[in-house]
Amino acid sequence: MTLPLQDSILIVDFGSQVTQLIARRVREAGVYSEIAPFNSAAEAFKRLQPKGIILSGGPSSVMWEDSPRAPQAFFEAGIPILGICYGQQTMMQQMGGQVEGGESGEFGRAFIEVKKRCALFDGLWAEGERHQVWMSHGDKVTKLAPGFEVVAVSEGAPFAMTANEEKRFYATQFHPEVVHTPDGAKLLANFVRHVCGLKGDWTMAEFRATKIAEIREQVGDGKVICGLSGGVDSAVAAVLIHEAIGDQLTCVFVDHGLMRSGEAEQVVSLFRGSYNIPLVHVNAETLFMKGLEGVTDPEAKRKFIGKTFIDVFEDEARKIGGAGFLAQGTLYPDVIESVSFTGGPSVTIKSHHNVGGLPERMNMKLVEPLRELFKDEVRALGRELGLPEIFVGRHPFPGPGLAIRIPGEVSKERCDILRKADAIYLEEIRNAGLYDAIWQAFAVLLPVRTVGVMGDHRTYDSVCALRAVTSTDGMTADIYPFDASFLSRVATRIINEVKGINRVCYDFTSKPPGTIEWE
Ligand code: XMP
Question: Which of 145, 208, 290, 375 gives the lowest tally of CB atoms within 10 Å of its CB?
Answer without folding.
Answer: 290
